UniProtKB/TrEMBL annotation, chain A:
SUPFAM superfamilies: Aldolase. It catalyses: 2-deoxy-D-ribose 5-phosphate = D-glyceraldehyde 3-phosphate + acetaldehyde. PANTHER family: DEOXYRIBOSE-PHOSPHATE ALDOLASE (PTHR10889:SF3). Transmembrane segments: none annotated. This is Deoxyribose-phosphate aldolase. The keyword rRNA-binding does not apply. GO terms for molecular function: deoxyribose-phosphate aldolase activity. GO terms for cellular component: cytoplasm. InterPro entries: Aldolase_TIM, DeoC, DeoC/FbaB/LacD_aldolase. Keywords: Lyase, Schiff base. Its EC number is 4.1.2.4. Pfam families: DeoC.
From TrEMBL, chain B:
Gene3D superfamilies: Aldehyde Dehydrogenase, Chain A, domain 1. Residues 34-266 form the Aldehyde dehydrogenase domain. InterPro entries: Ald_DH/histidinol_DH (IPR016161), Ald_DH_N (IPR016162), Aldehyde_DH_dom (IPR015590). It holds the Pfam family Aldedh. It comes from Kribbella antiqua. GO terms for molecular function: oxidoreductase activity. Keywords: Oxidoreductase. This is Aldehyde dehydrogenase family protein.
From TrEMBL, chain C:
GO terms for molecular function: oxidoreductase activity, acting on the aldehyde or oxo group of donors, NAD or NADP as acceptor. This is Acyl-CoA reductase-like NAD-dependent aldehyde dehydrogenase. It comes from the Bacteria. Pfam families: Aldedh. PROSITE patterns: ALDEHYDE_DEHYDR_GLU. Keywords: Oxidoreductase. It comes from Kribbella antiqua. Belongs to the aldehyde dehydrogenase family. The active site is at E258. The lineage of its organism: Bacteria, Bacillati, Actinomycetota, Actinomycetes, Propionibacteriales. InterPro entries: Ald_DH/histidinol_DH, Ald_DH_C, Ald_DH_CS_GLU, Ald_DH_N, Aldehyde_DH_dom. Residues 30-476 form the Aldehyde dehydrogenase domain.
């Protein structure tokens, strides 16, 4: 671990101890795992492999679930409550963010029974605006940080980026990992960066973006998921939305398996957030089915599962209206913000 | 006046011939029949040639054990190696050409030149089958373009222990033509030779023992196919049976019905011209096809 | 609703039009049986009578064989291969067009989940006809000589587990090669075969090329023993296969048999664990375990036994048992009361022999034939549930320590139909695949089928292959 300490301003590894004491053996073994870079590497490389075809076949089978009537109504509302309503554009302005926050608070002006989203996700410089707009709503402000989306900056800047966001009032921080370091096998570096950001984020919820579209293989997704969890992530998140492919169902399946297995070992619940590319209610429901049948019903909660999305919300609202009225609505009846 | 051979005496230098004992060939060894039985083998004109061991059901049982024991090693050899071993059989036969010719001539009542032609054809048949060893998989196997992300291929494998009731007429060429296609792909064989013409089979066994063929790959029983056949047909550790030595239709039917007990692959008797090019049908008769699937992914 | 509970999502039955009674399909038309008693086919998920079906007696079978012979001599064998091909392509397309109807009908009559009949059975049926259609005018390239000839009339007997898929496996290659057929579907699942008869009519297939005779063992026996049948193709139990092999002894009939199995599904410690669990589940619970090649013997390396079992049980707890027409059903109904009785009997034997039985909590419907997904642990090779084909959703779990021991146990059976291997090590996969005495080896996958891929068994699992070029050879004289 000496190697890491040299590079890490906030030395030490933060393994959060489980609240369930019966699972002590698992935690002990994981503490051991992170005691040196070599052990961490051996642990990650020793995780069971993922067969791509089998994983994708499983995701495809889960996609065939047919969610109708009451189940659909439940799923649509749950999905809305799980949304991190997101705008991450160079052209973002306070005006844009204000509009998004209004939408977050009251997604369907025609139907006050439509639930609020979980959070609004913006760049750090717009956190204050969002925070102000959402005060008293119960909706969190999430901020991307750490030189999002590429993560190509010094650790000092990443840490400062995070601190800025938190200082501006971010409840949640969505950081990116150093994919270059990960792909070149420098797992210790990735680990240390996450622990450093974890420290900088303070009490804010930490979502670790793996950018699975750049990790490419499911084996890498599984390793990165474990790496992030071991380093203190509250959530593991698929993508920045700036790289294609962004979230896919099989990738999310692999990450759900990882949080399930981590929970088996430690008793801790880590959240999962697919982000980017989920645009339809139909897709969202496939994700919820996958959550339900992989990690289990515990994860069917905005505390443990989020959608990073923007246009998804309107489709969920349209489907919701269709279910309530029996008629197909049109997009003109839903607000574009 | 009655002719009497000149008896050897101390003074006349007449040499008394050393006669050969014709035994069974099981597991690479040459036992007599456990039953202690033998039977008289005459030449085509009815003149005494030799006593042959008369194999019993227990000899057949022992032969199946030997064949099963040899199966793993023989079928596990590379095709190239099996091809070489079969070719070596042809080489060794060539060296024993004269002996085979004499026995075929005596057994089948052929002239020396015709018998020689039969032996030539038999040797050539070993050569032909030897060459098949490392071509079978390419000719009868396949790569299967399934509609999905899988690599899928099919390969031939040996069926296992093959019982052969060898032709009754063609004592060497016929025997060769039914044994070689079975063993070239990795099967092991228990063969019951022609009853009346067993001597070339015994010599073939002796020749095999001095070739590179592992013991037990071919086991040769002399005796009655009708007596031993039902034991082999009903034996649950025999995987296939060639009934070509059975001419009686009802007997063949009974043997086929016995073979059904463990779903043996059965080659029914049919009119055969052993001098013709054999084609692939006997080769493929004792093959299983194994299809293997594996996903293709990163 | 405070939890995410899947509401019923039934596929509509309205798409199928089941007649109250069916005749036999002989010489292009439906005809009354002359010497058999009608029988009923019931929906195994509700015990509802779906239709009354004719039983073909020996005289009816004779009529069907004569129709097939005539069609063989006069029409089908002399027809140009390209035209036979076009008929088969037509049939393939008609199956695709009527796929939803056929899937619903299959699930109703057989009890299998609509997800499987819709996504597996019927698409594969169409694919089989499409594949063999293309062979009909290319027979000289099939590896059966330069001028391969059809065998004549094929008598084909199929089981109830994949009624229409087995029909396709039988009829498509037979017709492509120029044979005509008399096919007997299983007595508990005749309806899709009778729907196929209608498809033959819609395709204008010449009369007599395909004949469907419904009935049970007696009908099958008449077909096998009919002197004018040139080829017998059977899929079903080893017991019946043995009887057929005896019955055709001494005749000139060609035979292919696709019989039982007791496949080992072998899990090594380095297996891709989540896909392995899916493969185990798919291996034994696909189609209620009514699969001859089911991975019914799970061989787990001792070092990962606890983990595999825990994960398997957790996964089994998510399986949804119930209405076959519900699109979310994973495990449907057991096909018949007789089969249910057999599964119960062997499971009881498993318990009596000391194996430990476990099923997830699941509510089974009151009507119909049901059996929960079940796993037996503490099973050894000596247990009957490790040796006999249960043909139901019942998995026996055994352990091994080394690859050689896995092979030894896997091969220690009179069957030899299929096997599974789960490991991330490539060289071990190939070594295992070499050693296993089985006709189909699935490595890091299980229960995959394709018309191009030859399928069939070693040893008492039968002989001959179906699928691919090899499946065509079984219907050609060479």
């Amino acid at each position: 671990m000496d190697l890491w300490i040299a590079r890490t301003p906030t030395a030490g590894i933060r393994i959060r101890l489980p609240s369930v004491t019966t699972l002590d053996s698992g935690v002990d073994s994981l503490a051991d795992v992170t005691s040196s870079e070599d052990r961490l590497r051996r642990f990650l490389l020793g995780l069971p492999g993922v067969d791509q075809v089998g994983a994708e076949a499983r995701a495809a089978t889960l996609s065939t679930r047919s969610i109708k009537t009451t189940a659909k109504a439940y799923a649509l509302d749950l999905a809305i409550r799980m949304i991190d309503l997101t705008t991450l554009e160079g052209q973002d302005t306070p005006g844009k963010v204000r509009a998004l926050c209004a939408k977050a608070k009251r997604p369907d002006p025609a139907d006050p029974s439509a639930p609020q989203v979980a959070a609004v996700c913006v760049y750090p410089d717009l956190v204050a605006t969002a925070k102000h707009e959402l005060r008293g709503s119960g909706i969190n402000v999430a901020s991307v940080a750490t030189a999002f989306p590429s993560g190509r900056s010094s650790l000092a800047i990443k840490v400062q980026d995070t601190k800025d966001a938190v200082a501006a009032g971010a409840d949640e921080v969505d950081m990116v990992i150093d994919r270059g370091a990960f792909l070149s096998g420098r797992y210790g570096l990735v680990f240390d960066e996450i622990t450093a950001i974890r420290e900088a984020a303070g009490d804010a919820h930490l979502k670790v973006i793996l950018e699975t579209g750049e990790l490419v293989t499911y084996d890498n997704v599984r390793r990165a998921s474990w790496l992030a969890m071991l380093a203190g992530a509250d959530f593991i998140k698929t993508s920045t939305g700036k790289v294609s492919p962004a979230a896919t169902l099989p990738v999310t399946l692999i990450m759900l398996e990882a949080v399930r297995d981590y929970h088996e070992t430690t008793g801790l619940h880590i959240g999962v957030k697919p982000a980017g590319g989920i645009r339809t209610a139909k897709d969202a429901i496939k994700y919820l089915v996958t959550v339900n049948e992989t990690a289990g019903p515990d994860w069917l909660d905005p505390e443990l599962f989020r959608f990073g999305a923007s246009s998804l919300l309107n489709d969920l609202l349209m489907q919701r209206t269709k279910l309530a009225t029996g008629h197909y609505p049109g997009p003109d009846y839903f607000t574009l913000d | 006046m009655v002719w009497r051979p000149t008896l050897p005496t101390k003074d006349n230098n007449v040499r008394l011939e050393v006669r050969k004992t014709y035994k069974l060939y099981i597991g690479g060894a040459f036992p007599r029949s456990e039953s202690g039985r033998s039977y008289v083998v005459n030449d085509a004109k009815g003149k005494f040639l030799a006593n042959a061991s008369q194999a019993s059901r227990k000899d057949a049982r022992d032969a199946v054990v030997a064949a099963r024991k040899a199966f793993g090693g023989w079928s596990g050899k590379t095709a190239y190696n099996r091809g070489q071993v079969l070719y070596r059989i042809a080489e060794v036969m060539e060296g024993r050409h004269e002996q085979f010719t004499l026995e075929v001539a005596a057994s089948e009542g052929l002239s020396a030149s015709k018998a020689r032609a039969v032996v030539d054809a038999s040797i050539d048949r070993w050569v032909w089958y030897a060459g098949w060893a490392d071509k079978l998989a390419q000719v009868v196997g396949s790569s299967n373009p399934v509609a999905g992300p899988y690599f899928d291929f099919s390969l031939p494998e040996a069926t296992g222990v093959v019982a052969v009731l060898a032709p009754q007429d063609s004592s060497l060429l016929g025997l060769t033509s039914v044994i070689a296609p079975a063993i070239v792909s990795g099967n092991t064989v228990v063969a019951v030779s022609s009853y009346e013409r067993p001597l070339p089979a015994v010599t073939l066994g002796e020749m095999m023992a001095t070739s590179d063929l592992p013991g037990g790959v071919v086991n040769l029983l002399t005796g009655s196919a009708s007596e031993i056949g039902p034991w082999l047909a009903s034996h649950l550790d025999v995987n296939a049976i060639d009934l070509c030595g059975i001419s009686d239709a009802e007997e063949a039917r009974e043997l086929e019905a016995l073979a059904a007990e463990n779903l043996k692959r059965v080659r029914r008797p049919a009119a055969e011209d052993w001098s013709e090019s054999p084609g692939m049908s006997r080769l493929t008769q004792y093959l299983e096809l194994k299809t293997v699937w594996h996903p293709i992914g990163v | 609703m405070s939890r995410f509970e899947y509401a019923p999502a039934p596929e509509s039955r309205a798409i199928v039009d089941i007649k109250s009674s069916y005749g036999l399909f002989i010489n292009g038309g439906f005809v009354e049986a002359t010497d058999g008693k009608p029988f009923k086919t019931v929906s195994p998920s509700s015990e509802e009578v779906l239709a009354e079906v004719s039983e073909a007696g020996p005289a009816d079978v004779d009529r069907a064989v004569r129709a097939a012979r005539k069609a063989f001599d006069k029409v089908w064998a002399p027809m140009a291969g390209r035209d036979r091909a076009k008929y088969l392509f037509r049939i393939a397309r008609l199956i695709q067009e009527r796929s939803r109807e056929l899937a619903v009908l299959e699930s109703l009559d057989n009890g299998k989940p609509i997800r499987e009949s819709r996504d597996v059975d019927i698409p594969l049926v169409a694919a089989h006809f499409f594949y063999y259609a293309g062979w009909a005018d290319k027979l000289e390239y099939a590896g059966a000589g330069e001028d391969p000839q059809p065998l004549g009339v094929a008598g084909q007997i199929i089981p109830w587990n994949f009624p229409m898929l087995m029909l396709a496996w039988k009829i498509a290659p037979a017709l492509a090669a120029g044979n005509t057929v008399v096919l007997k579907p299983a007595e508990t699942t005749p309806l899709t075969a009778l729907a196929f008869a209608e498809i033959c009519q819609q395709a204008d297939l010449p009369p007599g090329v395909v004949n469907i005779v419904t009935g049970a063992g007696r009908t099958g026996q008449a077909l096998v023993e009919h002197p004018d049948v040139d080829k017998v193709a059977f899929t079903g139990s080893t017991e019946v296969g043995r009887a057929i092999a005896k019955a055709v002894a001494g005749s000139d009939k060609k035979v292919t048999l696709e019989l039982g199995g007791k496949a080992a599904n072998i899990v090594f410690e380095d297996a891709p664990i989540d896909q392995t669990i899916e493969g185990i589940v798919n291996g034994i619970f696909f189609n209620q375990g009514h699969v001859c090649c089911a991975g019914s013997r799970l061989l787990v390396q001792e070092s990962v036994y606890d983990e595999v079992l825990a994960r398997l049980k957790r996964r089994m707890s998510t399986l949804r048992v119930g209405d076959p027409l519900d699109k979310n059903t994973d495990i449907g109904a057991i096909n018949s009361s007789a089969q249910l009785a057999k599964i119960r009997e062997l499971s009881q034997i498993g318990e009596d022999e000391g194996a430990e039985r476990w099923s997830p909590e699941c509510e089974l419907p009151a009507e119909g034939y049901w059996f929960p997904p079940t796993v037996f642990t503490g099973v050894s090779q000596a247990h009957r549930i490790a040796r006999e084909e249960i043909f139901g959703p019942v998995l026996s779990v055994l352990t091994f320590r080394t690859p050689a021991e896995a092979v030894e146990k896997a091969n220690n059976t009179p069957f030899g139909l299929s096997a599974g291997i789960w490991t991330d090590k490539g060289s071990r996969i190939l070594w295992m695949a070499n050693q296993l005495r089985a006709g189909v080896v699935w490595a890091n996958t299980f229960n995959r089928f394709d018309p191009t891929s030859p399928f069939g068994g070693y040893k008492e699992s039968g002989y001959g292959r179906e699928g691919g070029r090899h499946g065509l050879e079984a219907y050609l004289a060479h």
